[in-house]
Protein 1
Amino acid sequence: MLERLFKLREEPDQAKPFLHHLEDLRFMLIKMAAVLVSCMFGSFFFRHELVKIIQRPLVLVDPSAVAKLQTFGVADSITISFTLAFYAGLVVSFPMLLLFLAQFVVPGLTRREKKVVLPSIAVGTFLFLGGVSFCYFAILPQALQFFLHDTQSLNWTPNWTVREYFSFVTQMMIAFGAAFELPVAVVVLVYLNIVSFHLLHNTRPYAYLAVLALAAVIAPTPDLISFLSLGVPMCLLYEGCIWIAWLIEKRRPQVNPIAPIP
């Protein structure tokens, strides 16, 4: 797998040794880790604001439920804050992480393919933030209201812990942000001639099965509501990717075959 990735980033007239590719990969991972850790520690100093943001969907559903959130660990205030800062740092550093990844692959791309890199980073960042926002404003309030009312319908008291609530909310938002990256991944693969419209169209049933399986894996909880709220948008995004691929291939200049010499 690494050899195929390294061949993709090699320039046509210049082949690099395998160890040089590994060195570039190591340097890229170090830069990504440094940016992520820096954004994480920067986000930690705004933990009080982050806590209010994460608790807001619950406030909209039931303001009294926030006061009922419980902690059972002595150091929960610090450990949960670091976990929250990690996810916030991941969101903040996401454009830079995409840029470092693109810089690693760019050397082996053609001039035409390099023109796709920066727009892909911009669109990828927009879609990631769009997925996070869609989950935060549209999905989370509805999901929390359902779980809250369902618990009360069983005559149970919904005493949630801070760790469980924060884990559910943050993982749900990150999962939606990652799911919304699907169009960018497909468009890049189409531009690189790795996949085509006909391939995406003909394998649609298998792709839907794979997408739903992925949604089941990245959903923060194994319940049906989380699965459907994540799986259905991913299937709709994949359907949109099929027609985006069709549009790209339609606008791609066709190479006329050379007429045979009589």
Note: The CA atoms of residues 66 and 160 lie 9 Å apart.
Protein 2
Amino acid sequence: MESPVQRLRRGALGAGDKVVARVARASGTTQRQATGVDLAVAAVLQDRGTRDLHDPASFVELLRTCWEPLTLDVEDSGGDQLLFSALVDHLRTGVAPLPVDISLAAAEAADRLLAARTPYDRSALMTDVGSHARWSSSFGHSARFLTAVVRCLRARTVVEVGTAYGLGALFLSDALARGQEPGRLVTIEAGEPQKSLSAGLLADRGNVTTIRGRTPDVLPEVFAQTGPVDFLFHDGDHSKDAYVADFEASLPHLAAGAVVVFDDIRWEDPFALRDVRTAEGWEIVSAHPRVARRAEVGGRYGLLMLA
């Protein structure tokens, strides 16, 4: 007859075996997914070739980030909003890959952009457009997060503050076009050459309007065009003052249940020219009385749903 200690040990061993089996199954699934991504990338390269690519390795990496298995860490305040909960679950358990056509279009656009050697001399940053674009643009994982927000929360009218070179807007435009009720995007950029380059990239996107200017000057014009906004993506000036001012200016035009995403909520100025205090700005906007629910995604994005 088994003693209580023996039964406890046998139960623990059985539970351990189950955990090992579960991990093995998950690892096998991940391995198969990774292999599938490699095959998909290889098929694209075989079909289009690499002769005209400036940076084949970066081209391949961008395609991989569009399709590889992806889960995101989410710190969620909790609440009753079902659509928000569905989005959080989606981000935590596996963000959907992007369609092949938009992935390929974005990879080709990024390859051209990253090869650009036009001087970029704004502020204290003196480099070229390609180098600046490499660290200031939204690529595969960021695009999948934005697409998930549009898809899970059924956004139809989106405003983007900070177009940069237009890659994020390209993905947002595609996600809005694929909705059951196709939506539209208004995107704002204050600087050059970003405005001109992004306008060229987005010229054939019929659901995108590009506006040049600083948010204090152009937001009234933007909201006059859009009507109530479902999703505001703030990727413009990364500072406490800009977060708060742009959020407060937008609030009267954000629909009930609207979603707001702030990019780089823990960012600090790498050139130490100013005290940007993005984290402090994020705490202020997320404590607003209209905020029904908040989450932080991947230590980078601040995600809000409004009452």
Note: The two ends are 61 Å apart (CA to CA).
